[in-house]
Design goal:
Blueprint lengths: L8 H14 L3 E4 L12 E4 L4 E9 L3 E3 L5 H13 L3 E8 L2 E6 H9 L4 E3 L4 E2 H7 L8
Parallel strand pairs: 3-5
Antiparallel strand pairs: 1-2, 2-3, 4-7, 5-6, 6-8
Length: 138
């Protein structure tokens, strides 16, 4: 079993940014404002498009939708409806980045699902390589 080096949400955000930067992506972090909220954690651009996502850290192989905050739904939902930015959640589980698109999240919620098994999601780096955003996933 792979050891999980990431222990906090802040560590997960740093880890995601570093992994993407190694592959030539630009990553910007949103800091929490005076109210303690932010629209989502990071915005990233690779070779083609902009990606806006919230980073979630998980110690178990399930992502509970109750972990999605109202401000994240509002901001990601707005961008999703505009259709110009890829939106979703990057979930760090056992030091691997998984991706849940905002559209899939909405569909699962509409179907009554309350969570998703993380290891059934596509890995974020594989998705970015497939989409031509990065040259390699390893």
């Amino acid at each position: 079993m792979q050891e999980n080096k990431i222990r906090t949400g802040i560590q997960a955000e740093i880890y995601v940014a570093e992994e993407l930067a190694k592959r030539g992506c630009w990553v910007g972090n949103f800091n929490k404002g005076r109210t303690g909220t932010q629209p989502f954690d990071q915005i990233m651009t690779g070779k083609k498009k902009v990606w806006a996502y919230d980073v979630k850290h998980s110690k178990i192989d399930r992502f509970d939708f109750r972990r999605v905050e109202e401000n994240q739904e509002s901001a990601l939902g707005f961008l999703y409806q505009q259709g110009v930015v890829n939106t979703g959640f990057v979930i760090v589980y056992k030091d691997t980045l998984y991706y849940l698109s905002y559209g899939t999240y909405l569909t699962l919620k509409k179907n009554g699902d309350k969570s998703v098994k993380i290891t059934e999601l596509i890995t974020f780096l594989d998705l970015l390589m497939y989409k031509g955003e990065i040259a390699y996933a390893w």
